[in-house]
Amino acid sequence: MSYGAVTVxxxxxxxxxxxxxxxxxxxxxxxxxSDMFLGKNSSVTTSNGLKLSPGATVSVPLATEEQVWxxxxxxxxxxxxxxxxxxxx
Length: 89
Hints:
Elements: E1 2-8, E2 13-16, E3 24-30, E4 36-39, E5 50-52, E6 57-62, E7 68-72, E8 77-85
Antiparallel strand pairs: 1-8, 2-7, 3-6, 3-8, 4-5, 4-7
């Protein structure tokens, strides 16, 4: 298991890195006052990403090597993550 905080702004940032050896599940929480947008790589934008409202949490199953990236319309926003390995789907 791993967890942490990531500062999200107007440039896409990696929230959860891909695992090279196993499937994982990532819980991602928008711990800010602004919408965040999630995607699979650095090309995520506020126009094409999955919207995560302030205070919301999403569970994302990740295959080996998959990542989660985030972007906001403003700088200095807080995202939290918790990643757990070997989930049962």
